[in-house]
């Protein structure tokens, strides 16, 4: 049946396909309308379910690789790739079932061939492979993601992911392309012509997919592209940066931020020292502002890893990172505050004394605010900092500055906090300070008590002043339409 279908294909189409394989420098139009994955309403789906490709150089695409001599296997490879350049409608499970199964079997053959092939891929073969992958994978999302219905909020971890109905084919295409990119038989100097900037941009765009399986495959592929094509590395970093900028400053809508950050975490480990200015700019302009969106919890683990990797590479960056965190501190979001405090602890483990002293006053003022928070998780996480030996060491060496800042919060907790766990932690921290420098603690407590007496006196004076005003007002007659409200 399939031989009959293939024999009916136009000879002109066959000639064009063969010519394109013989002239690889013609390139691939990745942005052509036919190269996207169609949806149910796409005109491409309504076309006749036949394969718009024919055998190349006399090789029948339905033959098995084992049935042709080695000299013809690359031509058969190209022919089978052409056979897979049609995209089916998977929203209707009973439509084109035989054609879908034939394509799936052919994709599996191609995957097996790429896994076992030991000869160099020819340039026409590289062109055909990139063309097949682009036709099957690349499709358009809403313009600049602005009209997307996906908005990663604080509770999106609990939402159900969306799965692509075409995954039975897409997964094999992704596996094929991963094997193809990582194959020793693929020469980077040849493949870079077709896995070019346009191809990389469309690949990064796919990270907006709502299917987590697809994003996971893309993560592996983009990571391998970055590793194999050194010439494209600056462009990959720049393109990822643009995604982050758009997400933070324009849309706050993107599904693949966590996966892109995971890739960048691996990239940072390979940065040479001293760090280039380009890399530091990425830290200040992309990573630090990524703490701002309300969907931080979705990608916080990957973001925190990237930030700490930068500090491990160059510890003197720690002070600037702390200033950035203080700038974007989530005053009204308790869950994010807990995350920030956890990241601060990791940064403080790597900071040197000189850089710590530059930021310790605003830092511990903010920590003091967290200690006295009525949200018990925030207060608890802030007090847990005193369980870290490195943090205690930093505090001990600078206790004359830090203790006067945080002691009012500790005293307030000890007298008024409603949560027993926070109260116990507060008393433990006070005890730790007393063991560290009892005389300083007593002096700070005395100063705190004096300040509280002054505040209480001011409150009393203000209350008395209002009472005098109210009494005076109550004795005045009401004139005209003027009414005086006197509180009881």
TrEMBL record:
GO CC, sorted alphabetically, is: cytoplasm; protein phosphatase type 2A complex
**Primary location group:** cytoplasm
Q: Which UniProt keywords apply?
A: Cytoplasm
Q: Which GO terms describe its molecular function?
A: protein phosphatase regulator activity
Location in the cell reads:
Cytoplasm
Pfam families on file: B56 (PF01603)
Q: Cite the InterPro entries for this sequence.
A: ARM-like, ARM-type_fold, PP2A_B56
Q: Is-annotated flag, keyword Cytoplasm?
A: yes
Segments for region (Disordered): 1-41
GO BP annotations of the record are:
signal transduction
Q: What does this protein do?
A: The B regulatory subunit might modulate substrate selectivity and catalytic activity, and also might direct the localization of the catalytic enzyme to a particular subcellular compartment.
What name is this protein filed under? Serine/threonine protein phosphatase 2A regulatory subunit
């Amino acid at each position: 049946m399939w031989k009959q279908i293939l024999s009916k294909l136009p000879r002109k189409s066959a000639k064009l396909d063969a010519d394109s394989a013989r002239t690889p420098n013609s390139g691939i139009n990745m942005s052509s309308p036919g190269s996207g994955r169609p949806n149910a309403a796409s005109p491409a789906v309504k076309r006749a379910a036949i394969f718009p490709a024919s055998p190349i150089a006399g090789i029948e695409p339905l033959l098995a690789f084992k049935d042709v001599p080695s000299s013809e296997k690359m031509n058969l490879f190209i022919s089978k790739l052409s056979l897979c350049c049609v995209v089916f409608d998977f929203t209707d499970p009973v439509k084109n079932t035989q054609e879908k199964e034939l394509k799936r079997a052919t994709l599996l053959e191609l995957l097996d061939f790429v896994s076992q092939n030991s000869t160099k891929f020819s340039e026409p073969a590289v062109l055909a492979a990139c063309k097949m992958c682009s036709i099957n994978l690349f499709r358009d999302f809403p313009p600049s993601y602005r009209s997307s219905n996906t908005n990663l909020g604080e509770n999106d971890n609990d939402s159900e992911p969306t799965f692509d109905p075409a995954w039975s084919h897409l997964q094999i295409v992704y596996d094929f392309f991963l094997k193809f990119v990582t194959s020793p038989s693929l020469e980077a100097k040849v493949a870079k012509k077709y896995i070019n900037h346009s191809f990389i941009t469309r690949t990064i765009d796919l990270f907006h997919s709502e299917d987590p399986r697809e994003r996971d495959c893309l993560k592996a592929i983009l990571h391998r592209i970055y590793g194999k094509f050194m010439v494209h590395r600056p462009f990959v970093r720049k393109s990822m940066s643009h995604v982050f900028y758009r997400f933070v400053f324009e849309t706050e809508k993107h599904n693949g931020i966590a996966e892109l950050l995971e890739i960048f975490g691996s990239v940072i480990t390979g940065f040479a020292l001293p760090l280039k200015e380009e890399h530091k700019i990425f830290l200040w302009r992309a990573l630090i502002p990524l703490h701002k969106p309300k969907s931080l919890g979705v990608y916080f683990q990957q973001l925190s890893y990237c930030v700490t990797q930068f500090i491990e590479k160059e510890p003197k960056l720690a002070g600037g990172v702390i200033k950035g965190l203080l700038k974007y501190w989530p005053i009204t979001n308790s869950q994010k505050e807990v995350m920030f405090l956890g990241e601060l602890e990791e940064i403080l483990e790597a900071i040197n004394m000189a850089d710590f002293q530059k930021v310790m006053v605003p830092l511990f003022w903010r920590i003091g605010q967290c200690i006295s928070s009525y949200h018990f998780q925030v207060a608890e996480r802030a007090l847990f900092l005193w369980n870290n030996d490195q943090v205690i060491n930093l505090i001990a060496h600078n206790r004359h500055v830090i203790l006067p800042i945080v002691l009012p919060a500790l005293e307030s907790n000890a007298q008024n906090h409603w949560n027993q766990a926070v109260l116990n932690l507060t008393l433990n921290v006070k005890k730790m300070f007393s063991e560290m420098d009892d005389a300083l603690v007593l002096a700070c407590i005395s100063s705190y008590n004096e300040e509280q007496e002054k505040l209480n006196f001011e409150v009393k004076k203000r209350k008395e002043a209002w009472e005098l005003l109210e009494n005076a007002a109550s004795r005045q007659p009401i004139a005209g339409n003027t009414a005086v409200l006197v509180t009881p």
